[in-house]
């Protein structure tokens, strides 16, 4: 007779076997209790740390609010002050409610799953069923908690040598420098690729707050926005802002100085390659690139523009725009984010701005939900990948402060809409900036946006289409996917390929270069009319801004069409099949 392995209601061949099984279960239970104690301690440590880290910027905000209100209390009558503060309290309660409800849902989902696991593992232990016993289950829980709270932060710190731009590794050439910026050429990382010295050059403008490193996410893993251009032989340059805390000139940077330094760099790049520059801006860098171009200072130096997830009219944003709209006007003061450095200069607290982005998406970015989201990923046994570690390194260590003047221009773009005639709410050199100037100068423009971007929504990115023509490309996923997921050459929506009847910015740049060479192979600069004639021979069908598909490859403004005999000044080069880089680039 085969002996049974259970305890309850079973007949054993011998009392000795039953006693051994009871001792074994007792040992498993004691081990499980100890592991549960470890897991519980680590769990509360991690959860409290997550909440503490999330709320840390609020102390800065409270300090700034207190300083500003000292003066505002004297300027506003008491009844207005009471009304404003009641509205602010209501906004805080609404945010707190959203965050708490979604956080408790995430917590409840975890604990329901946890109790199911406890019950099933206990049954497995008592009745000898297949699957994890109680000791194994609790040991796994303790390991996951240890991984999340202690190992994960260390993995994030350890990814630093592989993440971002490291200008001392031989992959970059310092070309120029001003008091505020550096200009570096990005060299191909693939040894078989050579830079086409006579190719059309590209200058990348990274965002201020999010930093330049996100543009070179994981170069060693072939996940890098800037290297995706360079690895196709394109002469690729990137503008790097100097350390704001060590450089007073950056602390006092104005929009005009930003523009003049960009003009200097564009001149240097054009002189090196004999061709006008394509200006490529990511996020806030895209807005900066556009206003610099609209100022007229880059005329003759830049003939093409690429903007990626760039907020062109922030008031159209369903997230940030709506979030700012529900605040009393009294508290829409950029001074709330100011902080004073040791030398007396003021800068804008980048960490506080990042916190505002989290607040407007409090349902998903509250600390409780974020904690259990990370815990769930690690529970699935995926481990700590380089991509996850690099993303978290960027979020935790790469957000920086920014100059007051730059912040004020961005703030204006999110609080004041673009005028009906296309005039932006900011000026440079006391000149009005109007989107229509892009068309007047024959600038080729590609606008890229992300389908699930909750930071710069489609409406904010595509605002210029009301006044000018541009090619539009939609990428799946969120705000940084172009710099992370889709910068990988083998991805389904890689930057150098055509996908979903669209093309990535690298493919756009390659096709633009090819079209320009075909139109006038011996000229350094090509007239828009000549390029139009060459490019339109194989151009794809165009759709109007009123089309039901707002992500059409080419979008025209809602204005009467010109006669067919007169080609548009804004020309989009023809799409060609993706090519694999070879030894000639």
Key phrases:
disordered C terminus, 585 residues, alpha/beta, 45% helix, single chain, disordered N terminus, three-stranded antiparallel sheet, 17 helices, 2 domains, 17 strands, Rossmann fold, ten-stranded mixed sheet
Commentary on this structure:
This protein has 585 residues and is of the alpha/beta class. It has 2 domains: 15-158; 172-318 and 401-556, 3-Layer(aba) Sandwich (Rossmann fold). 45% of the residues lie in helices and 13% in strands. It is built from 17 helices and 17 strands. The strands form 4 sheets. The chain has a 10-stranded mixed sheet with strand order 1-2-4-3-5-6-12-13-17-16, with helices on both faces. Strands 7-8-9 form a 3-stranded antiparallel sheet. A hairpin with a 2-residue loop joins strand 10 (423-428) and strand 11 (431-434). The model is unreliable at 1-5 and 521-585 (pLDDT under 50).
Brief sketch in words of this structure:
The chain has helices at residues 15-75, 78-127, 134-158, 225-230, 248-251, 255-273, 284-294, 320-325, 350-360, 362-365, 367-379, 386-397, 404-415, 436-440, 458-461, 505-519, 528-535; strands spanning 172-177, 181-186, 202-205, 236-241, 277-282, 302-308, 338-340, 346-348, 402-403, 423-428, 431-434, 444-450, 470-475, 498-499, 502-503, 543-544, 554-556. It has 585 residues and is α/β, with parallel strands linked by helices.
């Amino acid at each position: 007779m085969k002996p049974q392995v259970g305890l309850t209601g079973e007949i054993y061949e011998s009392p000795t076997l039953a006693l051994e099984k009871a001792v074994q279960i007792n040992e498993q239970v004691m081990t499980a209790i100890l592991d549960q104690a470890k897991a519980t301690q680590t769990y509360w440590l991690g959860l409290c740390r997550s909440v503490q880290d999330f709320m840390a910027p609020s102390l800065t905000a409270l300090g700034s609010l207190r300083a500003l209100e000292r003066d505002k209390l004297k300027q506003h009558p008491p009844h207005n002050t009471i009304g404003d503060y009641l509205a602010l309290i209501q906004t805080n309660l609404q945010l707190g409610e959203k965050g708490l409800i979604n956080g408790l849902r995430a917590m409840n989902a975890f604990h329901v799953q946890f109790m199911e696991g406890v019950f099933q593992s206990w049954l497995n232990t008592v009745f000898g069923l297949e699957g994890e016993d109680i000791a194994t289950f609790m040991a796994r829980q303790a390991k996951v908690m240890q991984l999340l709270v202690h190992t994960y932060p260390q993995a994030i710190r350890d990814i630093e040598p592989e993440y971002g731009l490291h200008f001392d590794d031989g992959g970059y050439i310092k070309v120029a420098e001003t008091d505020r910026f550096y200009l570096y050429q990005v060299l191909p990382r693939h040894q078989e690729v050579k830079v086409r010295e006579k190719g059309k050059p590209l200058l990348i403008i990274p965002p201020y707050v999010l930093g330049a490193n996100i543009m070179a996410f994981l170069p060693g893993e072939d996940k890098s926005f800037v290297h995706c251009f360079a690895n196709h032989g394109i002469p690729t340059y990137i503008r790097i802002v100097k350390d704001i805390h060590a450089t007073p000139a950056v602390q006092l940077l104005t929009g005009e100085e930003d523009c003049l330094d960009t003009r200097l760099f564009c001149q240097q790049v054009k002189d090196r390659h004999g061709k006008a520059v394509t200006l490529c801006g990511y996020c806030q860098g895209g807005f900066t690139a556009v206003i610099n171009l609209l100022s007229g200072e880059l005329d003759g130096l830049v003939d093409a523009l690429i903007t990626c997830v760039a907020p062109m009219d922030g008031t159209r944003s369903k997230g940030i725009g709506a979030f700012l709209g529900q605040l009393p006007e009294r508290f829409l003061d950029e001074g709330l984010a100011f902080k004073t450095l040791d030398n007396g200069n003021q800068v804008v607290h980048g960490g506080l701005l990042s916190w505002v982005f989290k607040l407007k998406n409090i349902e998903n970015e509250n600390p409780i939900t974020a904690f259990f989201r990370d815990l769930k990923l690690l529970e699935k046994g995926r481990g700590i990948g380089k991509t996850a570690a690099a993303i978290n390194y960027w979020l935790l260590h790469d957000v920086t402060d920014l100059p007051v003047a730059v912040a004020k221009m961005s703030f204006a773009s999110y609080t004041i809409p673009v005028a009906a005639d296309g005039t932006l709410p900011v000026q440079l050199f006391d000149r009005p900036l109007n989107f229509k100037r892009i068309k007047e100068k024959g600038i080729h423009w590609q606008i890229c946006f992300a389908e699930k971007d909750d930071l710069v929504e489609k409406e904010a990115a595509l605002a210029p289409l009301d006044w000018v023509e541009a090619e539009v490309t939609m990428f799946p996923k969120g705000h940084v996917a172009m710099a992370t997921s889709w910068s990988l050459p083998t991805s389904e929506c890689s930057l150098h390929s055509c996908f979903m009847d669209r093309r990535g910015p690298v493919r756009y740049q390659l096709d633009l270069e090819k079209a320009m060479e075909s139109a006038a192979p011996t000229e350094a600069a090509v007239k828009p009319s000549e390029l139009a004639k060459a490019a339109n021979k194989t151009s794809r069908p165009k759709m109007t801004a009123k089309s039901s598909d707002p992500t059409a490859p080419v979008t025209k403004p809602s204005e009467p069409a010109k006669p067919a005999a007169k080609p548009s000044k804004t020309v989009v080069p023809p799409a060609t099949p993706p090519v694999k880089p070879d030894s000639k680039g």
